[in-house]
């Protein structure tokens, strides 16, 4: 497995946000973590990228233990995290924002090749390359946040609630990109409250409830599961 999260616990003071979570991500897989508000999904992602340190358990990436490493070291190993709420630099242009994602690479030719690919994925970013990020719509900013992350040629992508606040049309666009990333072979961990969208995109799903994984299985199977249908798909 490329990523293996083993029985981690994460606390915020007295709040036990993540209580013994294990999950695995293989190559070229989209793995989704679904669950209601406050279940601990974002905290799990933050533990993987080193922003929250687990008090128990281990995290392994590509054969090495990473849960004691600082976030910058984890980024260098190829884990890219797009947090909830699309944090783009409002006063920088689209192009400048994209370049900030490639800051670890000195290979300009390679960066330009990735940039061209991002423009192919998101033609709207090419059209708006010289516009400031704060003039983009919410969906376009989400595309920019994803594009910026792609500039680092990550080996594993952590996406936190990419559909939040987007119109159905924009959600379709984001889904299309996640599928394109999957076809390109880069694995994705997708945290979503929109379980329907997430289970359509993913190979495997984990259901998280009050800090624990309550259920996991092939995404297709979870879509047919009675509990998932009632609690998360509104059926
Ligand atoms: P959401 O979709 O609402 O972000 P989530 O499943 O991602 O939900 P987390 O954000 O991981 O859940 O939160 C898990 C628990 O930890 C919640 O009870 C939340 O209130 C608490 N929590 C999250 N961040 C902090 C923090 N910085 N300080 C204290 N408690 C926190």
From TrEMBL:
PROSITE patterns reported for this sequence: ABC_TRANSPORTER_1, ABC_TRANSPORTER_2
Superkingdom in the source lineage: Bacteria
GO molecular function per UniProt: ATP binding
Record InterPro entries: AAA+_ATPase, ABC_transporter-like_ATP-bd, ABC_transporter-like_CS, BCAA_Transport_ATP-bd_LivF, P-loop_NTPase
Pfam families: ABC_tran (PF00005)
Keywords: Amino-acid transport, ATP-binding, Nucleotide-binding, Transport
Residues annotated as domain ABC transporter: 3-235
UniProt similarity note: Belongs to the ABC transporter superfamily.
PANTHER family, A to Z: HIGH-AFFINITY BRANCHED-CHAIN AMINO ACID TRANSPORT ATP-BINDING PROTEIN LIVF
Name of the protein in question: ABC transporter ATP-binding protein
Source organism of the structure: Paragemmobacter amnigenus
